[in-house]
Amino acid sequence: MPELPEVETTVRGLARFLDGERIVRARVNRPDMRRPFPPELAQMLTGARVTGLGRRAKFGLIHTDREQTLVFHLGMSGRWRIDPATEDRHDHLVIETGDHRFALCDPRRFGWVDLVPTESLDEWPSFVGMGPEPLGNELTAAYLHAALEGRRQAIKLLLLDQRIVAGLGNIYVCEALFRARIDPRKAGGGVSRAALGRLVPAIREVLEQSIADGGSTLRDYARPDGELGYFATRFNVYGREGEPCRREDGGTIRRIAQGGRSTWFCPRCQR
Predict the structure, then answer these.
(1) Torsions phi, psi of 24, nearest 5?
(2) Inter-residue contact 23 to 53 (CB < 8 Å)
């Protein structure tokens, strides 16, 4: 599933060609993806000018001068294609400007789209109660210490809770915990202030590096220009079960199940 870096990479790729442009035509090719498309979506987008693009957690945002924001989630296999040579049968939403065509392609249809009044974005159900952005200034060791105090659930699962930190996903939590040398099984309330002091910069570092690399291509994800993300070549633990840790004091990478998801870690150097 595309995570925060993949969504950020997508938004930046779209912004190069879409920001400031007027949408001359919008077309919906099916009634729904994971959820139904908003009624009159094509009509509301046609003629609107894009005033900016952004991201909240794992959602992309396309703002328009009609005080409406197109919110999109890429699901498991979704991606935007810019000026595709041919139309794909999985292009469910197509937006055209005077110079470019943008197609939201999603073979599995786990993604979805909504149109939200821009002034009410914070009240949109999926955004209500979300924690701070991991790349923002609000995520600090002090904040995490207060949010995790007394919590017995594993730190890995707590970091995936969008009410604690917005946008973190399985890949990058595994990698950040490795960089911070924290055992993913440790109770959140038992993680020391010193360890949290290592964790916050580790989260930022792994996300920023992945964004610079264009994200992580595992199966379906590609950037809007069609290029693949290559952060997967830097994985220290994710998907490396049975392989040696890259640290000199490390052991063998293990995989366990937590909350219905796989967790990879080094049991020797993550304490």
Answers:
(1) -90, -20
(2) no
pLDDT in tens, 186-230: 999 999 999 999 999 999 999 999 998 877 644 444 456 655 555
CB 93 within 8 A of CB 104: yes
Per the CB < 8 A criterion, the answer to whether 104 and 91 are in contact is: yes
Give the burial string for 172-192 (b: 16+ CB within 10 Å, else e): bbbbbbbbbbbbbebebeebe
- R_g over Cα of the chain: 20
DSSP 245: P
- pTM value is 0.90
Helices in 152-192 by DSSP H: which ranges? 155-160, 170-179
Point out the residues that are catalytic. Answer: 2-3, 58, 261
DSSP string, 188-210: GGGS-HHHHHHHHHHHHHHHHHH
Give the model confidence (pLDDT) of 142-186 as tens digits: 999 999 999 999 999 999 999 999 999 999 999 999 999 999 999
Express each pLDDT in 99-139 by its tens digit.
999 999 999 999 999 999 999 999 999 999 999 999 999 99
